[in-house]
Model the fold of this input.
Amino acid sequence: MNCKEVQRQLVPYINGELQEKAEEEFVRHVRHCPDCYEELEVYATVFAGIRQLDGAEEKIDYRTLVEDTLENSEEDAKDERFFALYSFLLKTAATASLFYMIVRLFF
Ligand SMILES: [Zn+2]
Done:
């Protein structure tokens, strides 16, 4: 993802509308690009402000707003990877025990 693409995705990102993979690329880019980071900061602040004007009860810490948002995305990505590994191991174990039972039945 380049800067232009990231800047087009700023609003969808803040609204949580990005696909998993796009979100991951977005966060990775913002982490390494000071320009886009700054841009995200501006948007995130504006959108948080609008939410509060709308009467949202959430407390917003503007100093850590972008960090919190990015960290949330990174946590999500980690959870998904863990889950993928977990279900892979489960399937492998299930296949192995099934195989074992068949071997026991026939040999
Ligand atoms: Zn950039």
Q: What stands out?
A: Residues 3, 6, 29, 33, 35-36 surround zinc ion (CB under 6 Å).
